[in-house]
Amino acid sequence: MILDRFRVTGQVAVVTGAGRGVGAASAIALAEAGADVVLAARTTDQLEKVADQVRSTGRRAHIVAADLSDLDRIAALPEAAVEAFGRLDIVVNNVGGAMPTPLQQTSTRQLEDAFHFNVSTAHALVRAAVPHILDTAGGGAIVNVSSVVGRVGGRGYAAYGTAKAAVAHYTRLAAADLSPRIRVNCVSLGSVLTSALDVVAQNPEIKTAMESATPLHRIGDPEDASAAVLYLCSPAGSYLTGKVLEVDGGLQTPNLDFGLPDL
Prior knowledge:
The chain is of the alpha/beta class and 263 residues long. The protein has one domain (7-245): NAD(P)-binding Rossmann-like Domain (Rossmann fold), CATH 3.40.50. Helices cover 43% and strands 15% of the residues. The chain has nine helices and seven strands, in the order E-H-E-H-E-H-H-E-H-E-H-E-H-H-H-E. The chain has helices spanning 21-32, 44-56, 71-75, 77-85, 108-134, 158-178, 198-201, 204-213, 222-233, and strands spanning 12-16, 36-41, 61-65, 90-93, 140-147, 182-189, 244-247. Strands 3-2-1-4-5-6-7 form a seven-stranded parallel beta sheet, with helices on both faces. Helix 1 (21-32) packs across helix 9. The N and C termini lie far apart (57 Å). InterPro entries: KR_dom, NAD(P)-bd_dom_sf, Sc_DH/Rdtase_CS, SDR_fam. Belongs to the short-chain dehydrogenases/reductases (SDR) family. This is SDR family oxidoreductase. Keywords: Oxidoreductase. It comes from Rhodococcus gannanensis.
């Protein structure tokens, strides 16, 4: 059956930023498809709730509460997966972010911080994960999470958009280096209604404007993103590598400027 190609039964995944939002939804989706999951994020209480949902599917969960901007901490996750579950097959690089800031107020340090948190962390985890993934008979899959503002214009996104554009191209370069044993793909997300967009959900005017600017006329939910992550991790996506899957409701133009003033 075609649905069997979306199964990852018996595999082990590391998901960063797994305490809420897209990371949590991705971890739960992978568990529902048969994977045991290492959940990594900063906040233990959030991770415990996600771990309970993973275990409710009949799969195992292992929590790592850590500041994932620390490259040593994030690079230790593959070893934690092997110690907990004996193997590593899947990595989901979801951790990242940066606050929107007008260009003239974006310092060089802020730009470097955005690159560190979105790109350097991904690279540290990938490098540490590769030897363990290669120990598995069938190889494995890495999925990086980028953003629509990595490819379209948007006011205030000089740091975040630049970093997320780098994530997308890093995906292509890593895929070339790691093929054929390890597939590396990326999801480029539009607006997804997570806690990061609480301000949008609570403001009908902004929410309506964002929906109107999106061809599908709605804001995405975490399961829209996690379905794409599962596809790229599973045998269903086994003929894809180095690709950026745009999960953004068809968005081609910026949909929000957070009220940033004109220069």
